[in-house]
Specification:
The protein has strands at 2-11, 15-23, 30-37, 42-46, 50-51, 56-64, 71-81, 87-97. It has 104 residues and is mainly β. It is elongated.
Length: 104
């Protein structure tokens, strides 16, 4: 199983997006069949249809910090394909910073 990591440093109540590109280095077309996460705060979209050998695809991960307390976090996005290595993980981690109001 392969994995990649995305690190975010964000303020709470903000949304961050990151795109990871990949190339089909095999000899047959790859089809991403499903992308999902264990938490509603993390969503992903991906290249639909066949990705021919030598072609590029993308997975875009969106992390929503709204309602999350400040501190470190880690979520997992799972990518299922028809490839020999059928599942790839994207580890989404980082720190949520709380905005501080300036005292008057």
């Amino acid at each position: 199983m392969n994995q990649d990591t995305i690190n975010f440093e964000i303020f709470n109540n903000k949304i961050q997006t990151r795109t990871i590109g990949f190339t089909n280095t095999g000899t047959a077309p790859i089809v991403v069949t499903r992308v999902f996460s264990d938490c509603g705060c993390t969503a992903a979209s991906y290249t639909k249809g066949e990705i021919a050998p030598g072609e590029r695809g993308e997975v875009t991960v969106r992390f929503n910090g709204k309602g999350r307390t400040h501190g470190r976090f880690q979520e997992v996005v799972r990518i299922k394909t028809n490839a020999k290595n059928r599942q790839v993980l994207i580890i989404v981690s980082g720190i949520i910073k709380q905005k501080y109001r300036k005292s008057e």
